[in-house]
Structures are given as structure tokens and as C-alpha cells.
Design goal:
The chain has 271 residues and is of the alpha/beta class. It folds into two domains: 2-110 and 144-175, 3-Layer(aba) Sandwich (Rossmann fold); 181-245. The chain is built from nine helices and six strands. A six-stranded parallel beta sheet has the order 2-1-3-4-5-6. Helix 1 links the parallel strand 1 and strand 2 (31-36). It is globular and about 55 Å long. The two termini are 24 Å apart.
């Protein structure tokens, strides 16, 4: 099965999307190709991406972008009409979920995969990487990325069987932590707190980047959002340590055939 991964712009999920499907690089039966415009996502970038990608080549297409309702991403989404494709985005995409369903597309919107504090006075390449590292920790440790992985795996299996399943999921804190499969209730509470904090990060950064105009106000605002995400990442460390202390970390590796296995105890084999 050929899977095409299209990326315009960046959310944290974009950085690891294709890796979630083949974490040990030994999965048989799928081939993954990635096409990206890097950080840019204007209309011209989307058009250039579409000009060099043969969409008909793929059995399943994953398209990830910030704000899927923006003009550039809409170009790609329109080109995906009627294809077996899943749009993966952040909270601004929720407002177009009905439209995506009308186009016959699937979607996964990760509410906590929040906008970065993209003010030039504050954001440099180092800060950008640290933000994404903290965000990936939150999305991984809470269960949000496991949800993304499992829903895509369901779509892959459905495609093999000739079935029509595509995920249509808005990932809130409850859904993310359910996929985290926490055995310790305190660990789950910490993870839920981290997820909700990461959602608030997006609200603060949108305000700091688009609403507040005075530098003396927006610079501290986006800095505070990044500090909040750092705190959320620490909560995730604490949650995972609680699970490790009880030898109850949930692991869901892929088998070579692509089946999702599971285990709890460190020294047991996944089944």
C-alpha cells in the first residue's frame, strides 16, 4: 500500500506523522512518501506542492497543516475531494469538519497541538525547537499521538479490505488520555492537566500574535505561553514516571505485518 504524506506549514504532529506508522522501520506492506513545503503554507506554496505530486499514486493520503481553513490549505483540501484522505490539523480546523465530511474526507484535529509564539522579538530557531520538543512530549505522553496512530492504522486496514472507514475525530483531553491507557489515576490526572494547559497555550499565542499590537504586551504574553507549555511537559514527565514506578506503562508497538500489539510490564513480550 502506498501512503502519501503531504505537509504545508508545521504543527508538532507534522514532525513525526509518518514515523508513527513504522517506528522500527520494519513494517511490511506499506510504503510512505513525504512531500512538504516546509514552514510555508500560502496559496502559492500549496499550488507548487500540488504541481509536483501525483495524488493518484497513493492508496491513502495524509495531509497535515496548521489552520486547514486558511486559503493555502484549502487548495490542497479541494484537490483531495473524493480521495481516500485524512486531514490532520489543530483547533482552527474544527470549524470546517462538516465541510470535510461533505468532501468525503476524514479528519483528526488535535486541540492541544497549539500555535507557536511566532513573534520575531521572541521566537528564534532555538525557541522554535524547544517549543516543538515540549509539545511533542505532551502529545505523546497524554495519548494524543497514539490516537492519531491508531486511527490511521484503522484507515489503512480498511483500505486493504476495500472498506470506507476514515477517522473523523476532534481530540480533546478526555479522548487523548483515554488512548494514554493510564493505570495510575494520578498519572491520568496529570496528563489531562498537561493536555488542557497545552490547549490554553494556543489561545495565548493567538492573542499574542494576532490581537495584541504593543510589543511590551505581546512579548511577555507569548513568553508566558511557552512557559506554560514547559510546565505541561514537566507534568507529562511526572505522569510517565508514576506509570513506570508501577511497571504499568502501556506500549503499543507494530508487528512486522502492521498489526498493533500491546503490553504493560517492561519484561513481557507484546501480544
Amino acid at each position: 500500500m502506498r501512503i502519501g504524506v503531504l505537509k504545508t506549514g508545521n504543527i508538532a504532529t507534522s514532525l513525526v506523522l509518518e514515523l508513527l506508522l513504522d517506528e522500527r522501520a520494519d513494517r511490511e506492506g506499506i510504503g510512505v512518501e513525504v512531500h512538504s513545503t516546509g514552514a510555508k503554507m500560502q496559496t502559492r506554496d500549496a499550488e507548487e506542492l500540488l504541481s509536483r505530486v501525483d495524488l493518484g499514486r497513493y492508496d491513502l493520503i495524509l495531509y497535515t497543516t496548521p489552520n486547514p481553513s486558511a486559503k493555502g490549505p484549502r487548495k490542497v483540501i479541494e484537490a483531495l475531494r473524493g480521495r481516500r484522505a485524512i486531514v490532520i490539523g489543530d483547533s482552527p480546523g474544527v470549524k470546517m469538519k462538516d465541510e470535510l465530511e461533505e468532501l468525503g474526507l476524514g479528519y483528526i484535529f488535535v486541540l492541544a497541538d497549539s500555535m507557536i509564539g511566532a513573534r520575531r522579538e521572541f521566537l528564534d530557531p532555538t525557541e522554535m525547537v524547544l517549543f516543538n520538543a515540549d509539545m511533542l512530549k505532551v502529545l505523546a505522553a497524554t495519548g494524543a499521538l497514539r490516537l492519531v496512530q491508531e486511527e490511521i492504522d484503522l484507515a489503512i486496514e480498511a483500505a486493504r479490505k476495500g472498506e470506507d472507514y476514515l477517522p473523523r475525530v476532534v481530540v480533546n483531553g478526555a479522548k487523548a488520555t483515554a488512548r494514554g491507557r493510564f493505570a495510575n489515576p494520578y498519572a491520568r490526572a496529570k496528563a489531562r492537566a498537561a493536555y488542557e494547559a497545552a490547549c490554553l497555550v494556543g489561545e495565548l499565542n493567538v492573542k499574542g500574535c494576532f490581537v495584541v499590537k504593543e510589543p511590551e504586551k505581546y512579548i511577555p504574553l507569548v513568553a508566558s505561553a511557552h512557559e506554560l507549555l514547559r510546565g505541561a511537559a514537566k507534568l507529562c514527565d511526572e505522569a510517565r514516571e508514576l506509570e513506570k514506578g508501577g511497571d504499568s506503562v502501556a506500549r503499543t508497538p507494530h508487528s512486522r505485518s502492521g498489526e498493533v500489539l500491546s503490553k504493560r510490564r517492561l519484561l513481557e513480550k507484546p501480544e
